[in-house]
Design a protein that fits this description.
- The complex is a heterotrimer of chains A (249), B (259) and C (329).
- Chain A is of the alpha/beta class and 249 residues long.
- Chain A has a 6-stranded mixed beta sheet, with helices on both faces. A 4-stranded antiparallel beta sheet of chain A has the order 2-1-4-5, with helices on one face.
- The termini of chain A are far apart.
- Chain B has one domain.
- Chain B is mainly α and 259 residues long.
- With 329 residues, chain C is an alpha/beta fold.
- Chain C folds into 2 domains: 96 residues, no CATH class; 190 residues, no CATH class.
- A 7-stranded mixed β-barrel of chain C has the order 1-4-3-2-6-5-7.
- In chain C, β2 and β3 form a beta hairpin.
- In chain C, α3 runs antiparallel to α4, α5 packs antiparallel against α6 and α6 runs antiparallel to α8.
- Chain C starts with a helix and ends in a 6-residue tail after the last helix.
- The C terminus of chain C is likely disordered.
- Classes of the chains: A alpha/beta (249), B mainly alpha (259), C alpha/beta (329).
- At the B-C interface, α2, α4, α6, α7 and α8 of B face α1 of C.
- Bound molecules: adenosine-5'-triphosphate (ATP) and magnesium ion.
- The site of adenosine-5'-triphosphate has 11 residues of chain A, from α1.
């Protein structure tokens, strides 16, 4: 059923972050959201799982308007959504295995052994097998990020939100994560939103692109469309040429 | 004119901040009560929290109680020279430990130890988005973080306080026998002379309320942490200061209401 | 979370629960070994007794006050206590509430009625309730002492008129004594409770002097014996009668108006009644005072009465606590 963001407004005090952002991730597709640092990409993603409430506008996930859901319904919805945090947000009082198992304990009715097995599997998927008993403080930043991905995919959610999953990873690991994202969408039919600054990675995983600029959707289209896009802001961003963008503003 | 109004403006702002804070804390408390129905979420966490709040606090609480008992006995004997018989050392040590110093000193010590710990931990979880992560994993954060801590406080602070009172009285007793040339019978006579079972009830009521205050205020400041490490430090300090003050106010409140 | 840590939580909780339970029981004085039984005593008022205070029998602590309540009719206060059940209480047991120490803690003493027969015990409604009596405290004592001193003053005046010459001189010296005592008593009352130590000292001194005065009175009576031949003796007898009846009236007044000072007043009362009835007998029977003092039996009885008065004063001197309360806490 997909994720539909309609006319989303959000301000923090006087600072307007989202100013009528609309975009859609259709069922089973992977949407990549591009945008400058501080443009409100993470804020948008938090609206999708109800961590933030919009000032106006709405987010529809799985046919439900997130901001109108009662707490219980919201938790029901969250069971279907996996969220990869930009800074991993691992529980530092727990081991990696426990971190990954957290969602399984709550969201599934697996028994201990099944959970342990699934945890092993997920850690292997992000190339962290054997790290289960470590605590987050014993990991590198990239390892933490991958553990965060393992935790998000463990429950096999229908929707996956990746907030910069490949930032800070080496090229090989980055490619491996991209593979993983693709597998999730191909094999499990996951509807995904990926935020990334890494254009290689973006073109590898994206079914469609959206660009957030000045709180609004500047561009929405397929990879081919974005390659062909003449908009200087979009061009400037994907080619890394600030002079193009400056002309605009 | 401006200068004249300034103190009043400050006072007004302070009062409003306080009122708003109390209101928000009240809401967190109400939500905590509601979240208590997610038994499956917090039950597993209760025992570890009880260990942290209670068992880990036993050494410091007993250490404080030990010296309080000794000092009480010595000072009582110093005060009661001449007209007042020495067995009043027993009365004073027993009554003071039970009614006031046992609960309040334990409460203050734990507000430093437990309250700060909770505020720092939850504050860190807030600024590193771990609380958001809990939400996305469908754990109600209040049920997961606040309920077990507050429950552990309510259960374990009285427990620690009871042990502290016991140790304090025994310390006073031993001091009386060893250093004050009192007989054990004298001390026990004083101890039992004015004892009422209500003294124990009173101490436990106080300790329970302190347990609630310490943990819920720690959670409150932790939850409302903003910013990074500095924000966490700020929350921690405020949690300790506010819960210490709340303990003293509550102490006076119980004395007014129950005595 | 290791098993060990979980167990530690359990151990700490169990330790605290045990400490609270047994600590409370111990401090309450509940004996875990000896079997206990409950006694109830009825009082018209209970002074400062509280739950937890000691119950004593012949000076030995045998239990504690458990509960105090006004009976359903509202005329008596029922004090329930738990005591060891292996103590054979006397048939006519009564309960007396009195200060145990000078610091406001009271006790309930169980005693046979004839130990303090003069007390006005309450009449319990229930068969198995003990009759009770509560000793008045210092404020009541001093109020009564005030009245006594006033009466002694009147007595002194009367006695001053009664005799003449040598007898009169003898009596006058006694009166002086008495007057001094009276003054001291008044002083004492005005300074009461300024300092507890001082008060006790003064009471001791005062009661000692009242005792001396009583000795003096006896000596005076001996001297009266020597002047029996004289004419004015009859007149003197009348005056003496008036004096004693006045004393009697005062002690009655004490008892009637204030429900206090009962032990002292009651004992003084019975003493004075005997003096006065002796004098009455003499007047009615023999017509002369001579018989009174010639009959050794009568004289002995008179002396006995005076001795009893002395004993009472001695008791006040030795046990001021019984009549005195100084609340510090
Ligand atoms: N809780 C908050 N309180 C106040 N301001 C906030 C809050 N969260 C985000 N902002 C502001 O909103 C703006 C957008 O933040 P956001 O985290 O969405 O940026 P982003 O697009 O994810 O950037 P980056 O690519 O660097 O992660 C920033 O300017 C930030 O200061
Ligand atoms: Mg971001």
């Amino acid at each position: 059923m997909g994720i539909v963001i309609r006319d989303l407004h959000k301000s923090f005090g006087p600072k307007v972050v989202l100013d009528g952002f609309s975009v859609e991730a259709r069922d089973g597709e992977t949407l990549v959201i591009l945008g400058g640092s501080g443009s409100g990409k993470s804020v948008t993603l938090k609206h999708v799982v109800g961590l933030l409430t919009p000032d106006s506008g709405e987010v529809e996930v799985d046919g439900q308007i997130v901001s109108t859901l009662a707490r219980e319904e919201l938790f029901e919805l969250r069971r279907k959504v996996g969220y990869v945090f930009q800074f991993a947000a691992l529980f530092d009082s727990m081991t990696l295995a426990e971190n990954v198992a957290m969602g399984l304990r709550r969201k599934s009715d697996m028994d201990r052994e099944a959970i342990a097995e699934r945890v092993e599997e997920c850690l292997r998927l992000v190339d962290l097998d054997g790290y289960g008993e470590r605590t987050p403080s014993e990991l590198s930043g990239g390892q933490r990020k991958r553990a965060g991905i393992a935790r998000a995919i463990a429950t096999k959610p229908q929707y996956l939100l990746y907030d910069e999953p490949t930032t800070g990873l080496d090229p090989v690991t980055r490619a491996m994560i991209d593979q993983l994202i693709l597998r999730m969408s191909d094999e499990l039919g996951v509807t995904g939103i990926v935020i990334t600054h890494d254009m290689d990675s973006a073109f590898r995983v994206a079914d469609r692109f959206a660009m957030l600029h000045n709180g609004r959707c500047r561009f929405e289209g397929t990879p081919d469309e974005i390659r062909a896009c003449e908009d200087p802001v979009v061009r400037g961003f994907i080619e890394g040429r600030p002079e193009l963008m400056e002309k605009e503003s | 004119m401006q200068l004249l109004l300034k103190p009043f403006a400050l006072l007004g702002r302070g009062g409003m901040t306080l009122a708003a804070g109390v209101g928000q804390w009240g809401r967190l408390t109400a939500e905590t009560v509601q979240a208590a129905r997610h038994v499956d979420v917090w039950l597993r966490l209760l025992i570890p929290q009880m260990a942290r709040v209670g068992v880990d606090s036993v050494p410091i609480a007993l250490f404080i109680a030990l010296f309080t008992g000794i000092v009480l006995a010595l000072q009582a004997s110093y005060t009661f020279t001449g007209a007042i018989p020495l067995y009043f050392v027993g009365v004073l040590v027993g009554k003071t430990m039970m009614l006031e110093l046992g609960p309040v000193l334990t409460g203050l010590a734990l507000s430093g130890r437990v309250g700060a710990n909770i505020a720092a931990e939850i504050g860190t979880m807030r600024v590193t988005e771990q609380i958001d992560a809990l939400e996305t994993l469908a754990y109600p954060p209040i049920a997961y973080l606040v309920v077990p801590r507050v429950l552990a406080g309510i259960i374990m602070v009285p427990v620690v306080t009871a042990l502290a009172i016991g140790v304090g009285i025994v310390a006073g007793w031993i001091t009386a026998i060893q250093l004050l040339d009192m007989s054990s019978a004298d001390f026990v006579n004083g101890l039992t002379l004015f004892f009422l079972p209500f003294d124990v009830t009173f101490a436990m009521i106080k300790a329970t309320s302190f347990g609630f205050i310490i943990t819920s205020i720690g959670c409150f400041f932790g939850f409302n942490t903003q910013g990074g490490a500095e924000g966490v430090g700020h929350s921690t300090t405020r949690a300790v200061v506010v819960s210490s003050m709340a303990i003293l106010v509550l102490d006076a409140f119980w004395a007014l209401v129950l005595l | 979370m290791s098993r060990a840590k979980e167990a530690l939580v359990g151990v700490v909780i169990v330790a605290a629960v045990l400490l609270v339970t047994f600590g409370t029981l111990w401090l309450q004085g509940v004996s875990l070994r000896a079997a206990e039984t409950e006694v109830t005593a009825a009082f018209t008022s209970v002074g400062l007794i509280r739950p937890g205070n000691n119950v004593k029998y012949r000076g030995v602590r045998i239990g504690r006050i458990r509960e105090i309540e006004v009976d359903p009719q509202g005329e008596l206060v029922l004090v329930r206590a738990r005591i060891q059940d292996d103590i054979p209480l006397p048939e006519d047991a009564v309960a007396i509430l009195s200060p145990e120490s000078l610091f406001g803690d009271w006790q309930m003493e169980i005693a046979p009625r004839d130990r303090f027969p003069a007390y006005r015990y309450s009449e319990p409604r229930e068969e198995d309730h003990l009759p009770g009596y509560s000793i008045p405290d210092i404020s009541q004592l001093t109020a009564t002492a005030d009245r006594i001193s006033a009466d002694i003053e009147i007595l002194t005046e009367r006695v001053g008129i009664a005799f003449s010459e040598e007898t009169a001189r003898n009596v006058a010296s006694l009166i002086e004594n008495t007057e001094e005592v009276t003054q001291r008593l008044s002083q004492l009352i005005s300074q009461q409770a300024d300092a507890f130590v001082g008060v006790t000292g003064e009471i001791q001194e005062t009661t000692a002097e009242i005792g001396e005065a009583a000795v003096g009175l006896r000596e005076t009576l001996d001297r009266i014996n020597a002047t029996l031949a004289r004419e004015e003796v009859g007149e003197a007898l009348n005056d003496l009668l008036a004096v004693t009846s006045n004393l009697r009236a005062f002690s009655e007044g004490v008892e009637g108006t204030s429900d206090q000072f009962r032990m002292t007043a009651a004992r003084a009362d019975s003493t004075l009644m005997r003096v006065s009835s002796l004098l009455a007998t003499v007047e009615e029977g023999e017509g002369t005072l001579g018989m009174l003092f010639r009959d050794p039996g009568v004289a002995t009885e008179m002396e006995g009465a005076l001795q009893e008065l002395q004993l009472l004063l001695e008791d006040v001197r030795l046990n001021p606590r019984r009549y005195l309360r100084l609340s510090i806490f």
